[in-house]
Model the fold of this input.
Amino acid sequence: MKKYTFYFIVGSQHLYGEETLKEVNAHAETMADGFNSDASIPCTVKYLPCVTTSKGIEEAIAGANNDPSCAGVITWMHTFSPSKMWIAGLSKLMKPYLHLNTQFNRDVPWNSIDMDFMNLNQSAHGDREHGYITARMGIKRTVIAGHWENEEFRQQIGVWMRAAVGVFESRKTRVLRISDNMRSVAVTDGDKVEAQMKFGWEIEHYGVGDIIAELEKVTDAEVDALMAEYAEKYTLATDNTDAVRYQAKEEIAIEKFMKAHDFTAFHTNFEDLQGLKQLPGLASQDLMAKGYGFGAEGDWKVAALTRVLKAMSSDMNGGTAFMEDYTYHFEPGNEMIMGAHMLEVCPTIAQTKPEIKVYPLGIGDREDPARLVFKSKPGKAIVVSLVDMGDGLRMIVNDIECVEQENEMPNLPVSAVLWKPIPSLKVSAEAWIYAGGAHHSVLSYDVTAEMMRYFADMLGIEFVHIGKDTEINSFRKELELNDLIRRLK
Ligand code: MN
Done:
């Protein structure tokens, strides 16, 4: 995550003399060093000498725009910085933007305070001047207030940075569509032009024949090498090695195709396998573990979103997976959702060592596919869904608590996750369904609702959150207001 840089642009003016500006710079540098050595701030903060003129501000922002490693801009007004100077620069800003309202000194030095101190430490009103111009200009931003050494303040910056990394990686996401959406399904479809305009996703279709042509070129030696990798990571729990080798072949073909065309996510569709002998199961699972986004049944939205959430948390090890709400457990007082898919559950969320198994698959009308089977981790997580409302995109996030999988389920041939939605299955399911949330989602133990809220804010996407404070009637009212706002935009 350190490869992503954030420009720290500190505002001031010439009124206070050169000595004051030197102090401003020294403070800003100390703060940037403090941020960079704190584990709760995952990316690199790049300190710039303070800006004091319209031209200087414009140049700093142009530098951020043009720097391919820059994932966002952080501003702070150490002293007063007249905000008309910021109009030219801010109107050109193209990266996520965080306005910090902080102060170098934590406390007022009661015994020594004089007007020099007051003139140097005046972000209390300098940041209000800055807030006015960004509000007036309608610039998308996040404001975080607090002392710069405070742990919660730093954690919040870290959360915001991960969202900005999501935007950065989202703009580079290319989705390989192997075939189209599953016939007649509504929620997995949507406006790809809108998605590209908002998220930057390039969503490109190829025929299954293109993958089969690649598959026919895969050599036995390549399959042997991938089988050796499987043997290291997974337990081979089948005698049907031919089926496993076929999945390896599919994985190699899909990955080669993605690398050749710069794709970072893909989807399959069981209805359109043509000459493929198995629906990619183990192949899709292992590709997800490598960081590729994935969606089943032609769901390009969830494929791209899985990729983005994996990128936001690439240095974490909780796990992020393509998911589907599958079955309910309605035992009173112990209500749960069982998430799974027909094959493709990402092994990054495994608690037990994944086993490679081969079972028949009723859907898809092909040979028995090899897949990874495991129990999933307990722990706090979220599920995220993205749906196209026709006049805009809506993101729905639910906080969940994944629970220990106590029962063996010996006849279930796939991996599953059991979770208790927050605040309850009843409220969560009603809210999710009122919002039009999909059955496909991204489940993450690393990414939080707060990160996704910042991410949606940065891109101008509607965001609704189902969590501990959700009450169904006010949630429905929020949806109604959001519908209205979308239509007015
Ligand atoms: Mn599905």
